[in-house]
Amino acid sequence: MDLRQIRYFLAVARERNFTRAAQRLAMTQPALSRAIRSLEHTVGADLFVRTPRSVELTDVGRVLAAEVTGLDTRAANALREARRAARDTGRPLRLAVRGCDGALAGRLVEQCAARAPGQKVELVLTDPVAQPAAVRSGACDLALIRAPFDAWELESETWLTEPRVAVVAAGHPLADRTEVSLADLAGEPVVMGPVASERERAYWAGADLEDRPWREGPAVRDSLEILAAVAFGQAIAFVPRSMLPPQASTGGVAVLRVRDLSPSSLRLTWHEPSVSRAVAHFVRHALEVSGTVAAEHGATTGEAVDAACCAAPAVRGKDREGA
Question: Which residues form the HTH lysR-type domain (predicted)?
Answer without folding.
Answer: 1-58
